[in-house]
Each structure stands twice: as C-alpha cells, then as structure tokens.
Amino acid sequence: MDMVVLSGAHTIGKVKCSVIESSLYNSSGPCGVDPTLDPTYAMELKAQCPVGSSNLVYLDPTGGDTSVNGSGTVPYPGHRRLLGTRPSAGNTVDKSYFVRVGGKNVQTTRAGSPNQNLKVRNSKGTLKSDRNLVSTQSGKAFVNREAGNSVGRRASAADKENQPFFHDLVKSMEKLSTLEDPSSPGGEIRCNCRTRNVQTAPPPVGY
Questions:
Q1: Which Cys pairs are S-S linked (predicted)?
Q2: Is the terminal CB of the chain with fewer CB neighbours within 10 Å at N or C?
Q3: How far apart are CA 206 and CA 106, in angstroms?
C-alpha cells in the first residue's frame, strides 16, 4: 500500500514527453496508444507531445494552466475545457491523481482490432507506472481508497475532499524516512534516479 500512496506524489510536477512517447505512439492499442490509457487523455497528450518533442506535460493536469510548457498556447479548441479550469494546474497536492489513475472499466469493440473485447482500464495516469497501479485487484482497491471512494457519508467536507490520502501520505512518508541507508551492502543512493552513480577510482596515494 505504501508504494501506491507514495505514487500520489505525482499529483504535482511535470514529465518530459520523451518519457511517455512510447505509450502514445508505439504501443499495442489503436493508433499506437497504450490500451490502458484513456483515449481522450491520449489525444490531449499527443497534442502536447508530437513525436520527438522535448516538451513537458503535467503528471496531474487538473487546473487552469493547460498550455504547452506554460507558453499560453492552447494545443487545440476545447483543450482547456477537457483538462479543467482551476488555476493550480499540476501544482496542488490532492487526491485528484488517484481519481484520474482509477479510470473506469470498458470493453473495446472495434472490429478486427487486436484488442477487440479486451477489458481495459481507461486510466488517465500519465506514466505507465501510474497505470500499473490498477493492473491488479489489490492495486485497484488501494487506488480507490486513496481516491476517497471509501470515505463514509458522514465525513466532513474536508475529509471527503482529500482523505484518506493526506493521512496515509503522512504515515507512508514517516515509514520512508526510517529506511536504512541502502549503500551497504551493495546498494547506493543515486545522484540521478535513472542511472547508477559513476564509480571513480580513488586518487593515487600521496596525491
């Protein structure tokens, strides 16, 4: 559960188009789109991320700044309406990430499609790792919990808005802070999370 909760950090920040390009153009779904990705959201991402683009897109694009790289340029008519109208696009810590990742179950019906009748999760998770959270029943249950779907009817308006995510995030961050230093044995704290640290030889004795 902690990994699901900590993935909620993707409620803020941006990602390079190159990271998600394969999900938009080189996957197994119709038009090269990953079949787990919501097709409407995929259209929005393609508008911001043409092939080879170095643009940045929001991990959680709920809000009003829906331009490309904050340029004020709207990719196509209706783009702002599709993404929302709040002025805090991509910069607010809230449960909207889990609501978007949760998506919904649908059936593909396109005749002759390799994915015909495949039950998929129309998730609006920007990263593949986001959509993988709902690839199992237990993952779906955790995502639904963080989306607030299990909050009782008598809960306060504030609790219904962002609980239990805020509570769970605090607990998971506390656990994360108690992890032992992975540098021994055989681990390391990476300077760049994508690559292992460059191992340099120690300077000569007497240098």
A1: 17-49
A2: C
A3: 68
Q: What residue type is 43 in one-letter code?
A: M
pLDDT in tens, 30-55: 889 999 999 999 999 999 999 999 99
How far is it, in rounded angstroms, from Cα 67 to Cα 23?
21
Structural domain boundaries of the chain? 2-177
* H-assigned helices in the chain: 2-7, 17-25, 39-48, 79-83, 96-102, 128-132, 137-146, 157-162, 165-177
Mean pLDDT along residues 189-199? 78
60 is in an annotated binding site: yes
Between strands 105-107 and 14-16, the pairing is unpaired
Rounded to an integer, what distance in angstroms lies between the CA atom of residue 32 and that of residue 43?
12
36 annotated to a ligand binding site? no
Task: For residue 11, say whether it is annotated as part of any ligand binding site.
Answer: yes
- Residue 21 sits at the vertex; the CA angle it makes with 20 and 24, to the nearest 5 degrees, is 95
CATH class for domain 2-177? mainly alpha
What is the rounded distance in angstroms from the CA atom of residue 206 to the CA atom of residue 130?
51
